[in-house]
Specification:
By secondary structure, the chain is of the alpha/beta class. The chain is built from 10 helices and 10 strands. Helices cover 38% and strands 21% of the residues. The strands form 2 sheets. The protein has a 6-stranded mixed sheet, sandwiched between helices. A 4-stranded antiparallel sheet has the order 2-1-4-5, with helices on one face. A hairpin with a 2-residue loop joins strand 4 and strand 5. Helix 5 packs parallel to helix 6.
C-alpha cells in the first residue's frame, strides 16, 4: 500500500535526518517503527501521507506519488495520522463536532457526516462524551477523540506517531486496544513508538538508527538481537530481558517467547521436569 524508494530528507538546509530509506508497507499489515530520539522514525511517519516530501527519492501510496499535488488530497484521505499530543488535533469546542470536522472538509453530505460521527465515536468508546467540551476530557479521552476524528474520514491506513507517549497507563491501554481492534477489522496500522513492549503487538518491526533502517523483521527476529538493540540505545521488553538472563544460565527458552505468560509457561514446564 505504501512504498518508499531511496528516500532522504533534511529540515531546512540541514544534513539529512533520514538517508536512503527504502520500505514497503503491505495491505493489512501492523508495522511498528522504533528508534531512539533523533533516529528519524517520526520523519519517516510524516512522509507516509505527504506531510513531508522527500529531498530525494519517491513515496507512493496506493500507486499515487506524494509529490504530485493532484494526488495529495486522495492520499491524505487514505492515510490518517494520529500524533503524540491530541490537543494539536482538536479544533472545535464540542466532541461530536470535532469528529465531524474532517468529513465536512471532504465535502461529505451532512446526513452521511453524522453517520460517520456516530460510527467513529462508537468504535473508540466515546459516544457518551459526544456533547462534552474537549478541554474537559482526560488525556486518554482526548487521544480517543483524535482517533475518532481520523476514523470518520474512513482511511485505509492509520499512522500512530507516538500516540501513547503522553498518556498514563490506562490511557495507553485504551489506545493500544483500539489499535488492535482496528487491525483486526482490516486496517493497515503503522505505529511509531519508544515503548518496546508495544512492539509485541505488531506483525513486523523496523528499527531506525541514525536516520537509516538498522533492522527489519518480526518481533521474534528483532528481540533475538537484544544486544544489538541495546547498542542503539534501545531497551527490550521485561519478559525478553528475563528470558535472556535465564538462557545465559542454561535454561534454553525459545526466542519466540516474548510475553510474561508464555515465559511463565516455559519455566513451569522446566520446573515440572
Amino acid at each position: 500500500m505504501i512504498e518508499l524508494i531511496s528516500v532522504s530528507y533534511g529540515y531546512n538546509d540541514s544534513e539529512d535526518v533520514i538517508s536512503d530509506i527504502s520500505l514497503t508497507i503491505n495491505d493489512g499489515e501492523f508495522l511498528a517503527i522504533v528508534g531512539h530520539n533523533g533516529s528519524g522514525k517520526s520523519t519517516v511517519a510524516k512522509h507516509l501521507n505527504g506531510l513531508l516530501l522527500p529531498r530525494s527519492g519517491q513515496v507512493y501510496v496506493n500507486g499515487l506519488l506524494t509529490s504530485d499535488e493532484e494526488s495529495i488530497l486522495t492520499i491524505r484521505q487514505n492515510v490518517g495520522m494520529v500524533f503524540q499530543n491530541p490537543d494539536n488535533q482538536i479544533v472545535t469546542t464540542v466532541v461530536e463536532e470535532d469528529v465531524g470536522f474532517g468529513p465536512e472538509n471532504l465535502g461529505i453530505e451532512t446526513p452521511k457526516i453524522w453517520e460517520r460521527v456516530d460510527e467513529a465515536l462508537e468504535l473508540v468508546g466515546m459516544t457518551e462524551f459526544r456533547k462534552r467540551a474537549p478541554h474537559m476530557l482526560s488525556g486518554g479521552q482526548k487521544q480517543r477523540l483524535a482517533i475518532a476524528g481520523v476514523l470518520a474520514m474512513h482511511p485505509s491506513i492509520i499512522v500512530f506517531d507516538e500516540a501513547t507517549a503522553m498518556l498514563d497507563p490506562k490511557g495507553r491501554e485504551d489506545v493500544i486496544a483500539i489499535m488492535k481492534d482496528l487491525h483486526a477489522a482490516g486496517k493497515t496500522i503503522v505505529m511509531i513508538t519508544q515503548h518496546m513492549e508495544e512492539v509485541l503487538l505488531s506483525d513486523r518491526v523496523i528499527v531506525m538508527n541514525a536516520g537509516r533502517i538498522a533492522m527489519d523483521g518480526t518481533p521474534t527476529q528483532i528481540f533475538e538481537n537484544a544486544d544489538k538493540l541495546r547498542s542503539m540505545g534501545l531497551d527490550v521488553p521485561l519478559p525478553v530481558a528475563i528470558r535472556d538472563k535465564l538462557n545465559a544460565s542454561g535454561m534454553n527458552i525459545p526466542a519466540s517467547v516474548l510475553t510474561l505468560d508464555s515465559l511463565a509457561d516455559e519455566i513451569e514446564k522446566r520446573l515440572s521436569r
